[in-house]
Design goal:
Strand order of the largest sheet: 1-3
Number of domains: 1
Structural class: mainly alpha
Bound molecules: zinc ion
Shape: globular
Radius of gyration: 20 Å
Order of helices and strands: HEHHEHHHEHHHHHHHHEH
Largest sheet: 2 strands, antiparallel
Length: about 325
């Protein structure tokens, strides 16, 4: 299985589907990809355990966590996080603003270092989520698993992490022709494991050099790398699970999306998910002044610096019109 060239891999999968007949039923993921996925999900969790052990062993000789570790984790979280929210999501998926090719590639590289999958597949999956939100074919809806608390629990597990282990069927040529036409982006996807590796290795080297010790190297790898990946993966996946179940729904979108303040804070603004489903192409998800949206703040700064332009957001009257739209009795999906 050629893991490094998703375009070719998925083309093969699509041909297979044509032969087998297309259906929305989840298919089994090839074994090699399942192993890579397992390592991507469990590896950061092992890092979290290592971090707890390091904290436990805190002593004047080392271990534990200090300001250098915290700073490193925050910086790495911001770089990879905005790579996902500004790059993968608001730019590549929804074209909420325009930018230069080098900036587009840089954002895609930062996003790749979050270890949430290759850019093109991430976008194809997310576009499908918007097309089929909480309906048959949505890759990660918590609502398609039956009635009752057990079914809900199963749905939450599927929406959070279970879906990662099902072979999705992104009809690539149909859903992401704009990305497939960008050779730079194809190369960035081919080098995906390099970006993930650098995201783990660079903080390790930074802290190793700063403390001039192997202990610092390990601490940098754990806090700036693995724990940061773990936190960000679960925050991002919470948008799929939590933000389709718990929270406010000011807009009556044809799905179960919600606005969730705590998730919005830790996800750099992505938790204003009901707003986002109402206005998918808006660069601004926190539509009210009190809805803090860190990603939009950075986009605004980039706009002032001339790094991005044609930043899209709905007018006040468009927002009001959608808020006043008649409420559907039950979202029967
Ligand atoms: Zn959603
Ligand atoms: Zn979206």
């Amino acid at each position: 299985m050629d893991l490094l060239t998703p375009a070719r891999t998925w083309a093969a999968v699509e041909n297979l589907q044509k032969l087998q007949g297309d259906s929305h039923a989840p298919a089994r993921m090839p074994a090699v990809q399942r192993v890579v996925m397992f390592l991507s999900v469990v590896g950061p969790f092992v890092g979290l355990i290592a971090a707890i052990v390091l904290l436990w062993r805190r002593s004047p000789m080392g271990g534990g966590i200090g300001w250098p570790e915290v700073l490193l984790m925050v910086v790495m979280y911001a770089l990879a996080g905005f790579g996902v929210t500004i790059g993968f999501h608001r730019l590549l998926t929804h074209r909420a603003f325009e930018t230069s090719r080098p900036m587009r590639w840089l954002l895609a590289i930062f996003g790749s270092s979050a270890a949430q999958g290759m850019a093109i597949k991430w976008v194809a999956t997310h576009r499908r989520h918007h097309q089929l939100s909480d309906r048959e074919g949505d890759p990660h809806s918590p609502h398609l698993h039956g009635e009752g608390p057990l079914a809900m629990l199963r749905g939450m597990w599927h929406a959070h992490v279970g879906w990662c282990f099902e072979a999705d069927r992104p009809a690539l040529a149909r859903s992401v022709p704009d990305l497939l036409a960008d050779r730079g982006l194809l190369w960035i996807d081919r080098l995906y494991f390099l970006w993930v590796g650098l995201g783990l290795f660079l903080p390790a080297v930074a802290l190793g050099l700063y403390t001039r010790s192997w202990g610092g190297f390990v601490s940098g790898l754990v806090w700036g790398g693995l724990v940061r990946v773990f936190l960000m993966q679960h925050v991002t996946w919470s948008i799929n699970s939590v933000c389709h179940v718990w929270g406010g729904r000011p807009f009556n979108s044809a799905d179960h999306s919600t606005n969730n303040f705590p998730i919005a804070l830790v996800s750099l603004g992505e938790g204003w998910h009901n707003n986002h489903h109402a206005f998918p192409t808006s660069a601004r998800h926190g539509l009210r002044w009190w809805q803090f949206d860190a990603t939009y703040v950075v986009i605004q700064v980039m706009s002032r610096l001339g790094l991005v332009w044609n930043v899209r957001q709905p007018t006040a009257s468009a927002i009001d019109a959608k808020l006043r739209a008649p409420t559907k009795s039950v979202i029967d999906i």
